[in-house]
Amino acid sequence: MDIKSSLHQIKEKFKGNKFAPAFNAFHTFLYTPNDVTKGGTHIKAADDLKRTMNMVILSLVPCLLFGIFNAGYQHYAAIDAANGVIREVSLFGNFINWENFILGAIKVIPLVVVSYVVGLTVEFIFAVIKGHEVEEGYLVTGMLVPLIVPVDLPLWMLAVAVIFGVVIGKEVFGGTGMNILNPALTIRAFLFFAYPTWMSGDKVWVHGAVERMGTPEAISGETILGSYAQNQEIMYSLYDMFIGFIPGSVGETSKILIIFGALFLIFTKIGSWRIMLSTILGALFMGLIFNQVIDFGLITETSKFYGLMSVPYWEHLLIGSILFGAVFMATDPVTAAQTLKGKWIYGFFIGFISIMIRVFNPAYPEGVFLAILLMNVFAPTIDHYVVEANVKNRLNRLKIKSS
Amino acid sequence: MSKDIIVKKGLDINLVGDAEKTLDISKHSKFHSVYPEDFHGVYPKLTVKVNDNVNAGDVLFYDKNDEEVKFVSPVSGKISEIKRGERRKVISIDILADKNIQYKNLGELDSKASKGKIIEYLLSSGLWPFIKQRPYDVIADHKVSPKAIFVSGFSSAPLSADLDFISKDYQDKIQTAIDVLSKLTDGEIHMSIRKNSDSTLSSLKNITTHNVSGPHPAGNVGTLINKVSPINKGEVAWTIALQDLILIGSVIESGKFSSERIVALVGSSIDNPRYIKTTIGSEMSTILGKGIKDNSRIISGNVLTGKQSSINGHLDYYSNTITAIAEGNDYDLFGWTRPIFDKISTSRALTFSWLLPNKKFDLNTNTNGEHRAFVLTGSYEKVFPLDIFPMRILKACMYNDLAEMEVLGMYEVAPEDFALTEFICVSKQPHQEIIRKGLDEMKKELG
């Protein structure tokens, strides 16, 4: 008997059993089920939610791989810098090599594993309790989480945050499709407010920086944003920022790979190009306003806001996580605005507010995740007003008729 | 008079098994069955018993909610069985049909008959059930005068009967029906015709034709209504299918309830897709004959909106198409991630139907994935031409918010308008069922 029919028999045996969803979750990864349409359309299009979510994961894989190498590279680069050795980065020389990969993998892979194992366990438990199938939403969340945290984050903290994020951020609202806040960002927000020393500052962004603190081997773990916020000199070229040879959260430093991911999502028609574009426009607009403020001399070099305000408006896209947020976070269809017009407004404000928080809150100089969470909350309101216009048209039609 | 309508949003689904334009005559179907369930919302009260003899046109049952709406026998013969289900609900009325059909004389309709007389005639002769209304997509209320009547003159749904072909010999009957029905509305009768087609329907008089271009659902009557005169609260529009206009016209002309109908036999499971002339209620096994593949699903209607039937089933009262496609009751190894070339998709998520715009696909009934919560946004709108937010209204129906359903446009829609969004739904949600339940709830609460 082949695998297909033996699995089929197990499935039939478990039918109606409490643990059927758990078995089915694995079974359906091997075989798309033998379900046939019942009532309604007799044929269905090829795509299901698994395929859709899988495309998002595929688009994130390059960022993850780059993040692994970068974790290793930044560590060794910081040590060199502390010893006064000047490094010239070269992609196939001192960046893509076994040394970087092994160190990076040792740090990053456990983050991925913890994120998935803990998150999916929570999902399975809820699926079994509530008796529905395991939804695919966490497959993407679980991939996003390790990419948006500092590399040295203790694994137990991640586990606690994931449980909090999935339970409070999603399941209490009714599970996938019902949540108001982006689960991955809820997890990050939990970490940020519960363990701030591990989530911000000038030490956490490079592996080893925290544990070497105060020792003779101390190294820097500062990001570009942190340097700007303290009005320091920036040591990285635009090329470094674009390719991603800079410290930062695990997977969000490489702008070029994020752009590749974005193009893939737009091409497959899964990501909303409207949200991506409008977020970028919002960020540029806010950046431009700050540049004008500097140009008019309203803020001078003595101000603590000077450093970030004076960043050329387009350079904001190359630093921090605005691009990653625009492409992979803001576009989460469940928590974003759902109407086409709403998406433009929603995205624009994400970009706008992100840069505002970035400039005015130099203690934690990145505002993207807060901006997205804030707009998640307002997305239903935006949609409400867009739909209201349609409703009004309908009522007006009636009035014109009856008058 | 004719006007142009351009439909931009939608999706043409090209399938294998389109009917060749040849007409066969079906063999005599020994048994005919009428299923009260075909008439949505009707509570049947039988007027016949087993072993009664009936003529074609004799009343079989009427609607308990509105006793004037009669449902008549499509053939003459003896009532052989009345099948009942739970709580004695009538499932079907089976008639052992005569070879030579005897007709009840329904009388003639005076060409100068008043509105009241016409309605009375249509009710008593069993023609009324062919007139449907919106809101609610049910058999029309004869006490309310519609603002207009809408007829679709072409079909854009996948593998459905070519209305030009089935109507070309019946222009006079259609004209008769139109002339009579036009007296029942203060407005006009609107008909949609495929733009740049040489449809004989365009020469009909007493009617406003609209030249419609664009992908499915361009041919749906709901699309026509939405583009011509969307239904506001308190308004009623009637819809009649073209094949039913032919039947109405022929009854008015002859005084006999002739249930003859040309039906398209389509789909990849049919060896020789073609047209066939048969009668309403005929057995599927007689109509289809032998040329059917094993493990097929037989559908009375098209693949998007039809009813699941079987080889033991019967042609329902409203269908002009019988479809047979393969059942998809098999597993697909890594079906959720492998590249797909042989199925239709509106995304490009390693699905390649976008590269093959002219390919005819052989789709089966597999759901291609499991039921999930609504997640994706923005995709339904691309195949939904009505000025309505599809996901909003579906969700309003799911949580039964009548006030919201009303303002979002529930009066304008029918389940069939949501067939395409259901087809492309990655969450495999039953859109048509959700809308049907929502409409029923609204009708119950608001009348």
What report would you give on this structure?
The complex is a heterodimer of chains A (403) and B (447). Chain A has 403 residues and is mainly alpha-helical. Chain A has 2 domains: 11-33 and 49-260, no CATH class; 272-397, no CATH class. Chain A is 63% helix and 0% strand. Chain A contains 17 helices and 1 strand. Chain A starts with a helix and ends with a helix. Among the domains of chain B are: 31-97, OB fold (Dihydrolipoamide Acetyltransferase, E2P) (Beta Barrel); 111-254, 3-Layer(aba) Sandwich (Rossmann fold), CATH 3.40.50; 367-446, no CATH class. Chain B has 10 helices and 21 strands. In chain B, the strands form 4 sheets. Chain B has a 7-stranded mixed beta sheet with strand order 1-14-13-12-15-10-11, with helices on one face. In chain B, strands 2-17-16-20-18-19 form a 6-stranded mixed beta sheet. In chain B, helix 7 (390-398) crosses helix 10 (431-446). The longest helix of chain B has 16 residues, at 431-446. The mean pLDDT of chain B is 92. Classes of the chains: A mainly alpha (403), B alpha/beta (447). Chains A and B meet through helix 1, helix 2, strand 1, helix 3 and helix 17 of A and strand 21, helix 9 and helix 10 of B. Strand 1 (31-32) of chain A pairs antiparallel with strand 21 of chain B.
Tally of alpha and pi helices of chain B? 10
Binned, the helix content of chain B reads 10-25%
Shape of chain A: globular
Helix tally of chain A? 17
How far is it from the N-terminal to the C-terminal residue of chain B, by CA? 35 Å
Radius of gyration of chain B: 21 Å
Largest sheet of chain B: 7 strands, mixed
Order of helical and strand elements of chain A: HHEHHHHHHHHHHHHHHH
Strand content of chain B: 15-25%
Number of domains of chain A: 2
Molecular shape of chain B: globular
Structural class of chain A: mainly alpha
Query: In order across it, which strands form the biggest sheet of chain B?
Result: 1-14-13-12-15-10-11
Termini gap of chain A? 74 Å
How much helicity do the residues of chain A have? 55-70%
